Amino acid sequence: MRIVTAVAPVNIATIKYWGKRDDDLILPLNDSFSATLSLEDMCAKTTVMISPYLLENKFWLNGKEENMDNPRLSNCLKALKDRLNKENSEEVSSWKIHICSENNFPTAAGLASSAAGYACLVYALASLYQVDGDITAIARNGSGSACRSIFGGWVRWHKGSLEDGTDSIATQIFPTDHWPEIRVLVLVVNDSRKKYSSTLGMKQTVMTSELLKHRTKFVVPDRIEKIIDAVHKKDFQSFAKLTMKDSNQFHAVCCDTYPPCFYMNDVSHAIIDMVHVYNEFKGQLKIAYTFDAGPNACLFIQESDLSEVLSLIRYVFPSNLNANEYYRGIALDKDLFSKDLSLPTGITQYGLNTLRYIIHTKIGDGPRLLQDAKEHLLDSNGLPKNC
Ligand code: DP6
Fold first, then answer.
1. Whose CA is nearest to atom 12 of ligand 1?
2. Tell me: the pLDDT tens digits for 142-184?
3. Which of 137, 109, 129, 113 is nearest to 22 (CA)?
4. Atom 1 of ligand 1: nearest residue by CA position
5. What is the pTM of this model?
6. At the fourth CATH level, which superfamily is domain 182-362?
7. Closest CA to 93 of 57, 139, 129
8. 70-84 per-position pLDDT tens digit
9. Residues having CB within 6 Å of any atom of ligand 1
10. What radius of gyration do the chain's Cα atoms show?
């Protein structure tokens, strides 16, 4: 019997992946670039067990048994088994597998849960089957954006050009500690499940959007180089502008899809408005927003502006939740909010609890194994401990 438990991070793209050139191999139309978020505040956790005594393959996600016939899951498993170490491959590859996975953040609410989930699964399985070398192309088979969660820091997913997709891999461009002043605030607007999955949304976009063709051919290639240069130089002004423009273009492409897919809602638009009014008032870019396929915002700021930005958000989006429910993630200094905040004139204040809560986090490391047996989500019979 072998059992392994791993945790893997969420990543947030600042240059978005949207559109595949091959749906089965999950090959993207353009390169993308992302920041990996700290495992301490948001992560997926997965235990995998193989044993000659297990009778069938089984999979539990967030406490619920799921179907193992999912083609993406089978493709990841097959790709890993194909790379099994020759010595014990025959025996081990015939053993049945139990998988138990959970997220400590809202699933499928546009918070990259599938990316963290598949990265975690592939990382844990690679360790279980002792597979060496690149595993980002295998994680890509689970969910495109998952390949970027295999590394910490700042990551690029290269679209590649080979037909079999073997060069469509992710690489780390800058390590976790490259730009330690960067902080991320995830503003959770709504954590119910989203209407259209990214997979379906992007398929519809590829079939119908003219704007997507312009984006992938003329916009993204240049933007990728520019954002890498901005992160390299720790140039927050350029980084923030490119990040916001790319988020806006991604949602414009979603609007150009027929029928259109709307992922942002009125609260998302209120956040965008707040950021622009505030940046204008400060005479420079202090906050950058980015939105994935959901209404929640991810804000990039610099640590020195944390107190002021949090006070701004609390003013614009008042809440009657107690502090530990409203502010999650990196612990806050109590005095952080006592500061007098000078506000832009005419800034809109929204109703109580328009925003649900905030997760305060930073750039973090890639997946890791948890060695302590207490961390396993499966018991010695291969059954979930928390069901
Ligand atoms: C908006 O990786 O979830 O988050 O490859 O079909 O599983 P599939 O899609 P997925 O798409 C993520 C899209 C995005 C942008 C991004 O993360 O780059």
1. 145
2. 999 999 999 999 999 999 999 999 999 999 999 999 999 999 9
3. 137
4. 292
5. 0.96
6. GHMP kinase, C-terminal domain (3.30.70.890)
7. 129
8. 999 999 999 999 988
9. 13, 16-18, 26, 32, 114-115, 143-145, 198-199, 292-293
10. 21
